[in-house]
Amino acid sequence: MTQRKIQYWVIPPKNDAEFTASMEEVLETYEKPYDPSAPVVCMDEQPVQLIKEIKVPIAATREHAKRIDYEYERAGTANIFMFTEALAGWREVRVRERKTKIDWAEEMAALLDGRYKESEKVILVCDNLNTHTKGAFYEAFEADRARGYVKKIEFCYTPKHGSWLNIAENELSSLTRQCVGPRRIGDMETLREETEAWSEDVNNRQKGVDWQMKIKDARCKLKSVYPKINT
After folding, report:
1. Of 3, 10, 107, 139, which is most buried, counting CB atoms within 10 Å of its CB?
2. Nearest alpha carbon to residue 188 among 110, 96, 107
3. Cα dihedral sign for 127, 131, 137, 138?
4. Cα-based torsion angle of the residue sequence 164, 168, 169, 175 in order, rounded to the nearest 10 degrees
5. Residue 45's pLDDT is what?
C-alpha cells in the first residue's frame, strides 16, 4: 500500500454563524487605519520546552557543521507571550514560567502602563481562552486598578478553530523557526535574552505586517463557513 503524506491542518467548521461573526469582526478590525489613540494589538502565547546540553557542543569548522550530542536533559518549561502591533511594525516577546490568568493580566498591565499609557483604548485581538478575560485583572489587582485596565481594553476574540486569524500567531511561528525551534535553550534567562534579541532585530528591519485577507475575500473564498440561508 502506498504511504501518503499527512498534513495537520486547522480545518474550519462549515455553516457556522458564530465562527463567521467572530471572523468578520477580526477582519474588520484589521482594516482599521492606524490610530495611536486606539491601536490594534494582537497577542498569542505558546509553551516552550527548556533543554540543557549534557555534553559541550563541538564548534563548526570548514570540514563539518556544529556537532551536538544526541543526549540532552529536560529542564522544565516556560511560556512565551507574543504582543504585536502590526501597523506599527512592532512586536515584543515576554517569557514567564507559567501561563495563568495572573501572568497574562500582569503582562497586559505592563503594556497598558508602558507603551500604551497615553492611548485612550487598546483593541486587543486574542484567542478566546479562559485566561484572556476581564476577570483575570481582578484576580491580579485591586478592584479600582483592575477596572481601569478593563475599561481601556476592547476585546476582539478570534473564533474557535480560527487562531490562524491572529497575526500574533504568525509572529510566534516566525520566532519558532528563526530563534527558538532550531536550538536547545536550557534556562529562562537565556530564553529571555534570545527572544528579546530576536524581537529587537525584527523591529529594526521590518516596518509592518501586510495582512491581505479582507471580509470580501472571506465571503468569496470561505463560502463553506457561512450559513446557508433558506429563502
Report:
1. 107
2. 96
3. positive
4. 150
5. 96
User: How large a percentage of the chain has pLDDT more than 70?
Assistant: 94
Q: Sheet of 72-85: strands edge to edge? A: 90-96, 72-85, 40-53, 122-127, 153-158
Q: CA-CA distance, 140 to 80, in Å (whole number)? A: 19
Q: Is the pLDDT higher at 59 or at 153?
A: 153
Contact in structure between 83 and 172 (CB atoms under 8 Å): no
Give the pLDDT of residue 60.
Answer: 82
**Strand pairing class (122-127; 40-53):** parallel
- Give which of 176, 163, 175 is closest to 206, Cα–Cα: 175
Distance of CA 65 to the CA centre of its chain: 33
Determine the angle formed by the axes of helices 101-113 and 143-152, rounding to 10 degrees. 70
CA distance 71 to 115: 42
Q: Which three cell numbers stand for residue 109?
A: 498591565
Q: How many CA atoms lie within 13 A of 131 on its CB side?
A: 15
Q: 70 is written with which cell numbers?
A: 544526541
222: CB partners within 8 A, 6+ apart: 12, 23
Biggest CA–CA distance in the chain, Å, is: 71
Per the CB < 8 A criterion, the answer to whether 107 and 81 are in contact is yes
Contact 207, 76 (CB under 8 A): no
